[in-house]
Amino acid sequence: MATDMGIRGRGLRPVLGRRGPGRGSPRWSALTLLVCWALLLGVLAEPAAARGSEAGAAPLCGTHATSFATESEQGAPVSVRLGCAKDAGGLRSLAVHDDDLVMAVDFLPTAESRPHVREFMAALVDRTRADQAAGMTLGASFTKWAREHSVGIYPPQEGSGDFEGTVHAVEDSLVIVAATDVVGFGATPMQKFIASGVAWAVTGLVWAGCMAAFNVGAPAAAPVCGAVSEGLGTLVGELLNAHFDDRSLGDADVWAGALAASFWPAVKGAFQGALLAWTSERGATAIAQVQQALRNFGTKVKYFGTVTTYMAGAMAGLAPKLLASLRALERGIGSTGAPLRVMVVGDSMTQGMEGDWTWRYRLWEWFRDQHVDVDFVGPYQGTKQQAAPTGPPAPPRLQGEVLENPSVADPPVTGAYAQGVRAGFDSDHFAVWGRQAAQDKDLIGPMVAQYKPDLVLFGIGFNDMGWLVSDATGTLDSMKTLVDRARAAKGDVRFAVANVPMRPLIDGRQDLIVKTRQYNTMLKDAIPSWSTPASPVKLVDWEAAYGCDTNTCPAGYDDLHPNALGEFQIASAFERTLHDAYGIGQFVPGIPTTIPRRPIFPVNSLVAEPVPSGVKVTWAPVFGARGYTVRYRLAGAANWNQTHVSTNRYDTTWTEDGWTWEYQVNTDNGSDGVSVWSGTVSATAHPETAAPPTNVSTRPSSTGLDVYWDAPTGAHTDSIDRYEIITWDKDVPGSYIDSTAVKGTSAQIDGLVPGHHYLVAVATWNRAGGGMPTVARSVTVGAGVPPVPTDVRIQSLDATTVRLTWQGSAQAAGYRVWVRNASAGGPFTADQSTTDTTSHEIAFLFPGNWNFEFCVSAFNGALESGRSGCVSVPLPPPSAGLAGRSSTAVGRSPDPAAPSPWAEGRSADPGRDLVAAAPGR
């Protein structure tokens, strides 16, 4: 009767020895396992019609079923049985349901190798069960080991084809059972399941044969056999997966190099001689057994035939190439014997934000998978952490005050990485959010002198042009200075310098696209001349590898910064240069087909409360939140306004006493998704801010404007500290509000764009914070008194409402409409509101709009034109009274059913609603 030989407590490390610090043996290539998974893609995807009508109704476990009879395989060192639990004979008791999928890997060992086969199976069972006890699925356990023991040909990615199941050792058979009744079990998990079984078969086969060839108790046996069994098993798996994902397989030279790079660091010191001896004497025999096993698997499971036969044939010349690669490593070819010291220099796209994997991590994975001993160096270790809320908005800086750039003075570098980042990630770097090449050129010399990198990777320069620090030529000069000063600190340092990515067009920043193209072209042309024999410089084509252009950016979560896909793409660009230009690594894998999704957690613990500055809204910070969206409204309003914030606090400061505000918040991760909205909270404001300034007057200058005002009086004005002057360029879509502050009651603002129209407002700041602003007349910079408006036309919308239109001018910053009651003979007075458009509506013209006449003037701050010619609505017919409602000079008949424009808010002046006019404060 079959017995379960999986004994708890026997781990792989004490049984099979160690391969190096923190790494068990053998190197179970779950990747090898994944190998055959890919093999079966064609099988499992075969149309039902090709399999026959009966196959379509059969359970999934029977798709590739073989006989469970244990007939001997002539000359085969290992065989496989596969099918439904109900057909598995004595193995049925290991499954839960009849339709569970059972795979039996039957080793056919010699008397010498049998103890090692059973040792291998018992250790595998124990380790897998330990992973499951820690909360992993069987599929996740297999994938974990595949990743940890990759040879670098085609490393597996987490998150695809997962499955639940169990693993057992039964006499000389390794039995793997998958539960097919679990939601999501289908073709891909089945492929992975079968691939895992085949991979373990190859690993166990090589392990047992290798151990039997050593003398009992030989110290070198476990390290050498662990290295070669894991390496060969993983090689098969990675090549098969690469084939089925349409990726390059390389050639026998590449395979030999990958295996040698995997074996050599795992077998330390004196054991390396034993590894060379085994490869010379036994390597060809071991590889021949793997070839025979692959052919046998293809015979038993028909759809394996083509791929496994190809693999077996391609391995024919592998043994001598492997020995040559190992001997090259013995002589020190391709290795210095010391870790490669790498310094990564960059900005936000390189540092990353809390919860990111970062492209630095993906590059580190590549080094590890390629078995390149690397030591990342630099002063920082973390991503950018979420900023801690510091209270209500800080007072604006006074004119002349200089704030040191925080990315230089005290950078935020303590953020955590994505929760799936592997233990042991060497995260040292020199990359800071907001950093410019113009800044780093003054910092790089001391950093290189201190950390002594062998290789410096530059991913910087976008901010120089994006934030208008310099143009393409200036950015190139900064990059050249960076290289020169790094080389001055260490004469033999090598460089990989990336160009900068393109991003979708920002309204008003067409210059950024032009500068990016210019810079990337200039950098490509300049880099060859920057190299010296001892210190070469190579180009990294970030722009071409990165999935962003002037229209779309699927690689960025905010049209620039990399999401998980973009991180792989950037890392791949650097890998390509390191491999092609510097000969580092065996090859560069393709971008994975499965990209991890960023988790999105909702906002909790939302609280709103009145504070002296207005209303404070706070909530518990959400790990990995790239930001939050706050929506707010006055209680009773139908519609929400919303704004984006980067911290877990929002303040309403422009409010009146007694106004009640309502709030909801969600987590906003850009194109990676948003969470659900939180519940609604509310608070009533009782601000202790001062009243706004009065009599605010503006006047244009050639490159700016002058503004004057009177100090307010009343409550809370005794603690006024400063006045904030707010300007907003109306001619640049999406522009931000700018502000500065003064202690007095006048200010000169310079550096504005001549010909552009600017909104201007002034707010008081006291010890409670900033109060409601006074919106002044807008200004056209560099213009004088505007011409008088022409072609004024009038249209009657209803008996008490009119619409005026006119021809304006570019010099005008706005217009005033003048009104008088012609029937009563009164004087002209200005309408209460102004407008920056060439049309305006006025309502509540009682006893009827035909009693009034209207004129228009243009202004530029305090400079104002004369009034235009005046217009009026024709009198109604004498018999019609108010019902007459004559058509206007424009020819439109009023609609008595139409709602009042006043009720619709059409008579409001958008220029006075600073919040609505300029979102983003």
Describe this structure as you would to a colleague.
- With 921 residues, the protein is α+β, with helices and mostly antiparallel strands.
- The chain contains 24 helices and 34 strands.
- A hairpin with a 2-residue loop joins strand 23 (757-766) and strand 24.
- Helix 9 runs antiparallel to helix 10, helix 9 (221-244) packs across helix 11 (271-300) and helix 18 (444-451) packs parallel to helix 20.
- The relative contact order is 0.06.
- Mean pLDDT is 85; it is low at 1-56 and 879-921.
What labels describe this entry?
6-stranded parallel beta sheet, alpha+beta, elongated
Which helices and strands occur, and which strands form pairs?
Elements: H1 12-16, H2 30-39, H3 41-44, H4 48-51, H5 53-57, E1 78-84, E2 101-107, H6 114-133, H7 138-148, E3 165-170, E4 173-178, H8 187-213, H9 221-244, H10 252-266, H11 271-300, H12 305-314, H13 318-330, E5 340-346, H14 348-351, H15 359-369, E6 374-377, H16 406-409, E7 430-431, H17 437-440, H18 444-451, E8 455-459, H19 462-466, H20 472-489, E9 494-498, H21 510-530, E10 537-540, H22 542-545, H23 564-582, E11 607-611, E12 614-618, E13 628-634, E14 641-645, E15 649-652, E16 660-667, E17 681-684, E18 694-700, E19 704-710, E20 722-729, E21 738-742, E22 746-750, E23 757-766, E24 769-770, E25 774-775, E26 779-780, E27 790-798, E28 801-807, E29 814-821, E30 829-835, E31 839-842, E32 852-860, E33 863-864, E34 871-872, H24 914-917
Parallel strand pairs: 5-6, 5-7, 5-8, 8-9, 9-10
Antiparallel strand pairs: 1-2, 2-4, 3-4, 11-12, 12-15, 13-14, 13-16, 16-17, 18-19, 19-22, 20-21, 20-23, 23-24, 23-25, 23-26, 27-28, 28-31, 29-30, 29-32, 32-33, 32-34
Helix pairs in contact: 2-7, 2-8, 2-9, 6-8, 8-9, 8-11, 9-10, 9-11, 10-13, 11-12, 11-13, 15-23, 18-20, 20-21
